[in-house]
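Revision sheet: structure tokens.
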Amino acid sequence: MPMITAVEMDRDFELDGVPSSGAHHVRKSDRRVWGTWVEQIIGAFTSNGGLIYASKVLLDSDLDKDANRMAWVLGDPVTGNNGIYRKIGPSGTGSWARSSDLPFSFIIASDEGSGTSNAIEATSNLPISSSALVLLNIFETTGPGPVTVRFNGTGPVYTIKTASGNDPATGGLLAGMQVMGRVSGETFRLYSDQASAAVLAAAEAAVLEAQGHAEDAQAAAAISTGAMSTLLDPLFATRAVAMAWTPVAAPDYIRTAGYAAAGDGGGALYKKVGSQPSHAGKFSITLSDAVTIVWFEIAEQVLTERMFGAPCDGDWSGGGTDALTQLQAWASCPVSNRKRFTGVSKATDAITFPIDTTLEGDGYDVGIDFSAAVSITGFNCVVFDGSANLVQLTDLSANVAKGATALSLVDASGIEPGDYFCIYNPADYSWMAGNVTGARNTYRSGEWCRAQSKSGNTVVLMGPLWSAYTAAAMDVYRLRGGGPRLRDFRIKPPYLAVTAVYIDCAIEPVVERIRTDGSSYAGLSLKRCINEHVDCVLFQKVESGTPGNEYGIVHSSCYGGEIHGSYYAQRHGIAFGNSDFPCCVPNRSVRVYADTYNSFGIGSLDFGHGCNENLHAIGGTHSGIAIGGKNHKFSGVRSRAGIAQGGGSSGITVSGSEFAGGSFEFDNCYFEQRSSAPSNSAVQIVPQASPVSDLRFTFKNCTFETDAADAWVIRIQGSSCPVGISLEIENPTILGGAGLTQFARLQNVGGTFLMPLLVCRGVKGLGAAVPRVVTTGGVTISEAHMDPQEGTQGVTPASTAVSSQAQAVSFSWAYPLGVTPKVKVQQFNASIGAKRCIVIGTSITNAGFTATALTCDAANFGTTAAGSIQYEATVD
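Predicted:
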């Protein structure tokens, strides 16, 4: 025999039959010893001729073999007699000694049903040994109790054990199964699995029916050894079952299979804590001494509403169980800021989450249905409120200029590098021209800043200031904290003046793929938010048939970030406005890449309030655009208007009135004008509320598609505006336009209308005789640049009795009033009326000039013969 056998070398565990000793790893030295021995046996067996006997009796009766001859006994009814033997002693004497098992590693056995379900009788063509794996079919499903197997009708009866050393579960060996195992002592140890359903059922039954005794014993043992941490995670069907448990000692963890019922999705892991938690994700147990109370707190990394008892039986039509209490308990639980929707829940009032919550679902089929609510506290359904993180600091200690990159505070100890803070005027309306007609007291002066570094009480900013500020007038607020991350769910509000999702005082909020629909106010409201990222498809469905304040997204005092997606509302799909609250400074520097729609002829993209600056729309299609405030830009956008509903200003693609000043640029944009009245235009600008600085409107490489009824494309109407209004139009293309009487209309309806600069060049698609710009009511144009005009004109002396003859020349289209072009005249004929003469342009007006022919010698014309000239009129 070798130093080690195959059974020893390939045992499952380090200590044979002891799973807790760990898996055994074969050493190469053992493998070499055993393999060398096998090779020697095979060599000897094949070198001197192999001998095979049907029984040990036949082998023992044949001693006429030399010493060390090899023989196999194969087929002896006694299993232990089968094997490999070596001849001891010379020929004719001695005996045969068994050396090892037969070298078969795999044996197929058959259960043909001759035994019973729990006493299996199996047959095989080869004798069964502990060194061979046995593949055995199961003829009949096993019942309760131990299961045995005997092979080939004789020999020992082996008790079948699972790989872990237990009896198979009831029904664990199913009829038709193939199992694999090996004889080990008095057992047949399975290497394959038993039926998982039966194992699970048995395990659950054992846990739920006998857990008290088992765990009490384990707890007592753990306490006695000081190893309490070894008692982990007992399983209970429900939270109520867990709470009713009275063990000797409490484990470190408890797990439930459900909240109200096993498998209801509310199962969770709970950990033992030292005192009662202040939130709802908890329960207690009383130990077997009937005195000691131990508290457990939910320990999941992601919390779902079902873990707090929400039944998730909503139907998006107001049906189901009101789960307001459970939902608020879930939303408020501080154990984890990661929350996940797993179903539809009904709620009848507002639910508030911490500002840094990550709230996710798996699509629009999960979320909260508020549609049955008759009122909502605070007018917001789902609330993320970080206003507690907005803290007032000391005031500015010195005035700051526009463009400054640093400012000083009385005490800057409350600001650290990276902090966001707001300088805000709580009383002055200086963002626009004071409290005048059209201004709103919510248009406060101020802005959001970010600290780059600090030296003493001087804070260096990450960018220059937008405006200048007087120290005595400004308050300073700091905002810290995070922002919510919202993805993949639906919120359905009631048809009330409420907001579906409200976010206040958030830094870098993310809102992606959420759906809100149904309220008569807003789907999403962002207030005092920094660097937002929104990418949704939101809509407010038509309920009343009359446009009210139904918005997709509403912004108030937000700074930075971008918006993607598509938004539909009865009023504005995306709106930037304000109301009166601390830090109600202008919205600034938000980029819009989205589409917006409505069906009421009102601008679906609303930059129109006076409290906005530096908003930028890139691409996208909109059902009209509203502009106001200061310094906005539109790049490659398409504005389509003209659906007449609800008494809106149909046909107007861009409209604006609440202007604070600055420039409004449109580059490569497309405007589809659809007027219901000729007085409407594609672009209609009516400054109100007394802007504080000059206004400039620029259209470069834009296309204007007009309706046959449209009279003009762009109209700017001034009324005692105290600032200059400039208009620049470069390379416009007009499609349609059969009814146009002018391209741009500058209309003064009272007081003065000052235009420092007028540019209208490169117009394409406009009728040859249609004026590019028309002024009415008195417009003072300081500088103009317009397309040149040229033409030819006949000049005929009216009489031969004079030396100077005048011929009226009209331009193809008239320049605006107050604009006088330069005129160059070139004559084709050196002589007119038989006299050498020169022709000059005189009496030049916006509509034409007088071509005056003068004889070179001051003598009268001799005849009335005609000549001709070519002229060019330029405004540049």
